[in-house]
Hints:
This protein folds into two domains: about 20-120; about 125-285, Beta Barrel (Thrombin, subunit H). Helix content is about 35%, strand content about 25%. The protein contains two helices and twelve strands; from the N terminus they run ααββββββββββββ.
Amino acid sequence: MPLGTLDRDPPPFFRQGPSALSKLAVCSALALFFMVADARFKVMQPLRVGLAAVLYPAQWLAMRPVLLAQGAAQYFSLLSSAQEAQVQAQMKRSELSQRANQVEQLSIENERLRKLLGLRDRLEANASSAQVIYDVADPFTRKVVIDKGLANQVVLGSPVLDEFGVLGQVTRVYPLVSEVTLITDRDQAIPVLNTRTGARGVAFGDMTTHADALELRFMAANADVVAGDLLTTSGIDGIYPPGLAVARVEKVERRVDAVFARIYCTPLAMVSGAAHVMVLEPLSTKIPDRPEPTPTPVPLKKGAQKS
């Protein structure tokens, strides 16, 4: 059957109420009416408020997961920022602490260098500054290595001082560095003078009591030596200039059955922590050579004739 011959109207069995076109027209008219009425007279405002009050719990529940997710994301973001700020603050504090330590160390070094410069002005011998590189790794000796050698005209036997007193003596010289034996070494000896009494003696390195000590040996048991006496270089050895501070008497032990007293001394120089030192020219370079002895004439025997 051709499509054009079909009847488009619904069968009589389904025809109930107004038609769809009529309903569309009525609903459109009502919608237009309510829109105009609401725009003019706000007639739908109570209904809108009521619907909002009824739907608020549903909206609150629907928004909870979204708000919780946003809060969690914000919390973790703030936690990460706080941890990063804490790490940066710790790094900054460590840097400031390191700078403070460096400033303190530089202040100490500047003070020591000023004292060395003042000591250099008071000395008559030629002096040159040097820096301690490292300690010699030998538990049975007390030696350090400085950064001056033959290239800097350092000679064997040169006295080495710090800002407080005599530190040691150059015992080995290399092209660029030198080895200094400290006065506390057990094989090192230095002639000293008691500034209170004027008595001379010899101080030896002593490692029996503690690592950094001296012992004034071969002093009679009744010698006038008391704790607190200042010992300086006597200058009779041809190496150290006279008047340089060496040590201070710490303890004197006198025994009835001993000929010599046991005199323990503490060095004034920083034998364990010196960083900058001064190398002096040995005193022997300024002492004139010993004159050669003149030959004594041999007496002639009796009866011998002069040739």
